[in-house]
Amino acid sequence: MQQIFCDETGFTGPDLLNPDQKYFGYASVRMEEQEASELVDRIRAKHPLQMPEWKGSKMLKTRRGREAALAVFEAVRDRSITTVVDKRFALAGKLFEYIFEPTIAAFSEPLYQAGFHKFVANLLYIHLRASISPVEDLLIAFQAGVRSNDLSKLTSALAAPGSSEGAHQFADAITQYTRANAKVIGKEIAKSGISLHDKWGLDLTTTCLSGLLGLWADRDVPLDLVLDDSKPLMDWWDEAKDLYEIRPGPSGLGRPEEYVTVEGTRSRVHFLLAAAPTFASSKVTPGLQIADVVAAVISDAFQHKDLLTNQDLLQEALAAGAIDEKCIFPDFSYVDSKRPAVQANQQRLWELIYRSITK
After folding, report:
1. CATH topology (fold) of 2-86+221-256+275-319
2. 253-257: long-range contacts at Cβ-Cβ below 8 A with a sequence spacing of 24 or more?
3. What is the pTM of this model?
4. DSSP assignment of 283-309, as one string?
5. What is the pLDDT of residues 72-110, one digit of tens each?
């Protein structure tokens, strides 16, 4: 029986500004448990490594380990799907989710369709890339606020020496906006008694998993999952288990109401699970180790996509459907001031902030 093994690379929990791990990769591989064990044994025999448990990020640091990792990926490429996230950009998106979304809930649909959320996230990201930026101070404070469920952590971002006037103005405006809407934003951040919200609000694992499940459902295969026994995933299932219908077999082709469409892109959000997820330790589960390696290979290729070999790998993987086309990366077309749509979003942002701080 084929199962979908899922594992990650680049996990830093709720710290999305970790300078040593800028990307998060989450891979899913569909295969039989026995087949996974045989594949691991076969590649170990050909590429001996002093590593009882495969960890893709470590394997890629040596020539022999990289050869083994690439051999694993080639063996399962056509039956895997991986998503990769730029964690700093994801944090910018989380800021929109926590700070802006609660305040625009009554009229959010047209703003999302206009790409307003991506405009704000990309603008934050651009300012964050500067070597000295008050936006980084803002995001550090925001991250601390979410992790502690305490709005008071969102203090003013002070101007850093040498920072641009525009970056300081932007950070200061968001801080003022947060203060002006402290009551509604505070409810979004405050402890709810739900572990998934209170402890893992910035975790990317469940976001990536949900997206991958929608893609597998569209391939009309049974969603029989084997997940790493990590605390975020176990808390996710504890909260989500009543939301999913469990029935043997595939979900079938999706009905229109099972999708959401934003800016013309459809994503499946409703599907069946063939069984309740199995939680296992990667130390003793070859399928999870294979998923870890696949996640590391794709994530590394994105991180070093200036290399021709990685460009070829990514192109072939995309052609094989092995990469989620909705990977979370910045898209600077959303902040290209020459575009009328960007000009409109810029006006929306400043009008929204102005109305909040002057009401």
Report:
1. Nucleotidyltransferase; domain 5 (3.30.420)
2. 253/218, 253/220, 254/217, 254/218
3. 0.91
4. GG-HHHHHHHHHHHHHHHHHHTTTSHH
5. 999 999 999 999 999 999 999 999 999 999 999 999 999
Kindly give, in sequence order, each residue whose CB lies less than 8 Å from that of residue 85, ignoring residues fewer than 6 positions away: 23, 24, 25, 26, 204, 208, 327, 328, 329
| DSSP H/E element including 259 | strand 259-262
Contact 5, 29 (CB under 8 A): yes
Contact status, residue 115 vs residue 345, Cβ threshold 8 Å: yes
Interatomic CA distance for residues 161 and 164, integer angstroms = 9
Paired tokens of 338: 């020459």
Report domain extents, the chain. Answer: 2-86+221-256+275-319, 88-197+339-358
- In sequence order, what DSSP letters do the residues of 315-330 get, joined into one string? HHHHHTT-B-TT-B--
